[in-house]
Specification:
aa-tRNA-synth_Ic; ATP-binding; globular; 410 residues; RNA-binding; 15 strands; Tyrosyl-Transfer RNA Synthetase; ligase; Structural Genomics Hypothetical 15.5 Kd Protein In mrcA-pckA Intergenic Region, Chain A; protein homodimerization activity; Rossmann fold
Length: 410
Amino acid sequence: MTTYDSDLLQVLNERGYVHQLTDAEGLDALAVRQTVPGYIGFDATAPSLHVGSLVQIMMLRRLQQTGHKPIVLMGGATTRIGDPTGRDESRKMLSEDTIAENIASIRTVFERVLTFGDGPTDAVMVDNYDWLGSIGYIEMLREVGTHFTINRMLSFDSVKLRLDREQPMTFLEFNYMILQGYDFRHLAQTMGARLQMGGSDQWGNIVNGLELGRRMDGVELFGLTTPLLTTADGGKMGKTASGAVWLNEAQLPSYDFWQFWRNTDDRDVGKFLKLFTDLPLDEIARLEALEGSDINEAKIVLADEVTKLVRGEDAAVSARATAQQTFSGGGKGDDLPTLSVPAEGIRVGAALTELGFTKSNGEAKRKVAEGAVKLEDETISDPGYLIELEEGAELQLSLGKKRHAILTRG
C-alpha cells in the first residue's frame, strides 16, 4: 500500500477512501506544510441525505481529524438546476423555501459529525446561491465561459449517457459543470480552499474546477475522489428493497437505520468499519477476522458506532435495545416503527406498503404468497387479510426475519 507523509492522505488511503488523486505528491506536501481547507458539495433535493452520501461526510470528518478545515458546500443554486450526472431525465424544480428547509434539515447531521465554529480547523457550511445567485449572465459568459469548450463538455460521461440514450438534457443542466467549476474557483479565492473531494462520478467536474482556478488565477488546486461504493453482492450502497436509507430521523426511524447496518453482508463488515467508524484499524482487523456466528459481534459494533455518530448516543442505545427485545426476548421493542390502524381496519398488503416494507401492494401480495409475512407469530396466507384492532391493542407485523413494526389502533 502507498504510504504518505501527511496524516490526511495516510488516513484516507489506509481506510479506503482514495480512488483518484490529481497530484498525490503535491497534495501530500501541502498537507504537511499547512492547514488545507477542503470541500465537498451536496445538493439539497430532499430534507435528508442518504447513506450513499455518508462516505463523503466521513471524508470531511477525516479532514478535520487530521488537522485540516472542512467546508460543507450546500448547492442552493445548483439544486435549482440539477446535476445531470448519472441521471436519465431532468430533475424537478424546487421552490426557494423548500430548498432552504432542506438545507436546514440536512445541517443537523453535519453538526453531529463535524465540529463547527470560527477556528482554523472548524467546519463551516456555505451555500453557493450566495455567490451564483448574484453573478450576472454576461459576466459568467465572458469570465468563465471562455475556459470551457463544447467539445470537452460533450465528452463527459454525465452528458454522453443522456445523449446516447436519446434522453433530453436542457441547456440549464448543461451549465451545471460550469457552475460547479466556478464554485471551486470562488471557494479558493474567498476561503483558501485547495482541495475538492467527491465520488468517482464527480471526477470530471472536479478537474474542470481546478483547471478553471489555474487558468483564471494561477492557483494550484487539488482533487480527490472515492471509489464507487457497492455492497459485496453488487448492489448500490444505501439502496434497499424498501428504498433509500436516509440519515435523518424524520425520514427513517433509528431502529431501521441501526438494523440496516446490523444486516451488513459478512464480506462488507471490515470495509464499512474502516469507512464509517472511528475505531482503530487494529480493532477493525480483529472484528473483521471473526468467523461464523461470531461475525455478528462485528455487525452490532458497526450498527452501534454508525448510529451513535449519525443519530446520537441515545438513538443507538434505544435501537439496540429494541433489536434485543424483538429478536432475543420475544418482546416488542419500543423503537420499532409504528402504524396507526383505523377503526375499520387495514389490509395486510396496504399495511406492508404504508410501512415501506414493500414498494407496492403487488409486491406485498407476493411476499404473503411466499409465506414471509407474520402477524405476531402467525403466518398470513391471505393477501386480502383485514387487520382489525380494538382500542388500546397492538400487534407486531413482520416481513421475514428482519423487518418488524407495531400496529396500534388509531
